[in-house]
Amino acid sequence: KDIFDKGGFDIVIGNPPYVSTKEISEEEKEKLNLAFGFVDDLYHHFIICGFNLLKNDGILSMITSDTYFTTLTKRSLRKKFLSYILLQLIHWGHDIFASALVSTATFICQKCHRKDSIITFHDVKGKKTIEEGKKYLIPQDEYSNSINGCFYVPTELCLGLNNRLAETHNKIVEEWWAKIETSRKIASNAKTLDAYRVNLKEGDVTIIGLVTDGGQGMATGNNGRFVGVKTNTRMSFNIIESRPIKLLEVNRKYHLSYTLPNNEIEIWHLFDSLKEKYGNNIFGQGYVYRIVPDSLLADCDSLTDDEKEYGIIGSCSFVPYDKGDKEGNRWYIENPFVIDWSKNNVHFLKSNSGKKGNGMPVVRNAQFYFKEGFCWNNNLNERYYAIKCKVKKAGIHDVASMSLFELTPKVPTYYLVTLINSSLCGYFYRMFLNNTVNVQVNDLRMLPVIVPSKEQLLVCKKLFDGAIETQKAFFKQQINIDEREFRLQNIQNEVDELVFDIYGLQQSDYPPLGKTLY
Question: What is the rounded distance in angstroms from the CA atom of residue 449 to the CA atom of residue 64?
């Protein structure tokens, strides 16, 4: 009591629990909302409590997850810091605690009214001590007006990007973000957005969210029932090896004596019947056991609008199904997965979408099914600035494949894929939009895009085509992995030079960003 009679503590130091919003129960969320007026990762609430315990001019310092540097959900916390004097930021990265899986940072903030102040930023990622890391000094006002209001590492390149794009980018987000943050809002503002895109001209700055639409796709709830793999693919060979083992395990568990049929359709019926009797996860959650011959594949180009929306009558009903790419290929991939888009299946999927219960599907963004677009690997490599983006063929995409689709020929798909695959855009994404390893769709929507000139598009198309041809040659086993990486790295070097030029920067003025992984 005596402490608070005097205004509070002089210093508060803490290491809050590393508990995300996903790990908080609904009851706990309700309590947090009543106490704070918002619900977020627990460290955010602990920081607010820390400030409340301080007297005026007191010092708060905590080591927490570093997600408040960039993520949208932490923007209010960044504003809280900047309403006081932020003395130091120490970016530790992943190496500070052996038991912690998150990237961490320490802040030191003084609870007093803002003055003209300088923040000391220590970038210690990958180093053992603060002294080994890089030290930067940055005026606090720079962060008040930064892209996304973020706490970027003040490297020369970040300063250059921020100086070049911050004012325009922030104005675009302020004016347009509320109209595009969901597909539903994009649809309700369609006329206004169409007029905006019509008026775009060469050299204009926009963002990906204003020139594309899309999002997550379908969750079937029962991949074994609906999803298969094309024959003579690596995945099909894996299934051929695993099916006898899976069946043997079920036989032993339930004292059965089934043998694997020789006929593919009979195998499907056997596995379907066992799942129906013993549960969807009898072979393991999401296990795919159908191997689909070419004779059962539909020609997507010849499908009618009615077949795309309501399903296909007849046996040739399997269409491409993008389940994401765990290997993280860039530019292009030979997708082995297909989904049975028969009329009965489509009726079941759509009529049961969102219903509670085991094995129930969720159909999202169906308006984008059977459209060509682009997608990306959800994980951003910690050591390299590379978003692994690729084109996607017409078909169905699932919940693991967040996808976007072109809305104007002024900013075509091949141009966007090339930009996103550049080291500069990967660097921008990590430094200004989301410094975690995940590549979230709404963060990617905020990536700034320069409307290209015809000359830039020609160069871009040549590089894009070269990358696609290289990947196709690799998947057809016409070149080995070393040759693929050699060709793609040469293309990458040209892409990076082109993209620096598009954004009005000289690549030679900045240190190299590192080798790209394929």
Answer: 32
Cα-only R_g, the chain: 26
Residue 509: Cβ within 10 Å count: 10
Q: Give 494-498's long-range contacts (Cβ < 8 A, gap of 24+).
A: 494/463, 495/418, 495/421, 495/422, 495/463, 496/422, 496/423, 496/424, 498/418, 498/422, 498/456, 498/459, 498/460, 498/463
Q: How many CB atoms lie within 10 A of CB 52?
A: 11
List the single range of 320-329, 450-459, 471-480 with lowest mean pLDDT: 320-329
Could you tell me which residues come within 8 angstroms of residue 123 by beta carbon, excluding any fewer than 6 positions away?
91, 133, 134, 135, 136, 153
Residue 440's beta-bridge partner residues? none
Between CA 426 and CA 91 the distance in angstroms is: 19
Helices 26-36 & 42-53 angle (0-180, nearest 10): 30
> What per-residue confidence (pLDDT) applies to 257?
94
pLDDT in tens, 481-493: 999 999 999 999 9
Residue 421 contacts residue 391 (beta carbons within 8 Å)? no
For residue 448, give the nearest of 285, 243, 206 by alpha carbon. 206
In 3D space, the residue among 111, 139, 105 whose CA is nearest the CA of residue 123 turns out to be: 105
Phi then psi for 56, rounded to 5 degrees? -60, 140
Tally Cβ neighbours within 10 Å of residue 427.
Answer: 21
Would the pLDDT of 518 be above 50? no
Residues counted in the chain:
518
